[in-house]
Input
Amino acid sequence: MNLLFTFLSLFRYNHRMKYLFRSLAYTVLMLVLISLLSFGAIHMAPNSFSGGELNPNMTPEAIAQLKAVYGLDKPLFRQYADWVVNLVHLNFGISFTNGAQVSEVVAERLPVTLWMNIVALLLTFVLSLWLGITAAMHYGSRKDSALIQFSLVSFAMPSYYLALVLMLLLGFVLGWFPLNGLHSLEPPAGIGYYLDMAWHLTLPIAVMVFVGVGSLTLYVRSLVIEILKSDYIYFARARGIDEKKIIRYYILPNLLPPIVTMLGLSLPGLIGGSVILESIFGIEGMGQLFYLSAMSRDYPVIMGILMMSAFLTLIGNQIADAILLKLNPFVKR
Output
């Protein structure tokens, strides 16, 4: 009897269970709406696969046969229902271009995009925190003005333009870095294989960090300036507390909630990657896969990437909210 009471108490409807069910219902509802909009928009796009415009030499009989193979001869609502059923079973369908499973195509390109974006994301946040706090602590000085100008240049710099400039100067003229690809023609074995990959990814990561650090630096700077206006900062300085301790014990804890929120919103980029940069540098990642799939109207691959990005966005928001509940007790009220 006591075991039964303990088991039932686990499912007691309290504020935590209420928050969990609301978050789950919100996630499911948003995924359904995103899937409906994405599925409808893709099938309404011009030059569709079902129309045969991609290959004018195809006969009507061949087009009809392909439509039957991929289920494109069914009504649109039936296609969507079949796609949802397959999605529940983690089956994203078959690629139109090579006939492989979408999950296999994504799994082949996902690791390089994950590593590249994780490294760029961590470097961007660490560098932005340091630059933003430094600018705010020297508010109104030349250092602050220089960091603001640097951030504005970073914010306004197009990634494709910077990528082409770095490829021209550092890759073509100076020859310090390779122009494209993930590996050399004859990559070394062992640890040299990964060092060769890191050498090829240096320029793309540098472009991603430079383009992303500007807006985040300005955001951190504005937050720190508001924190420095607080009463507890005046009291801490009046007590003679060192500036490094003020940053560590007063500024950084108050920066955690917005930074956690920004990290949660940055999760989709780990899968989506950078479409432009991966195409410019010839990196076979998720960004390039999405671009090629969009050009070839490969609906299953496009929908698979879109749904994974949407799922990561929603899960990132939920994780950020859960962490905020732990970091800030006033949020619970």
In short: Residues 3-8 have pLDDT under 50 and may be disordered. The domain at 105-332 is CATH 1.10.3720.10 (MetI-like fold). The radius of gyration is 25 Å. The longest helix spans residues 191-228.
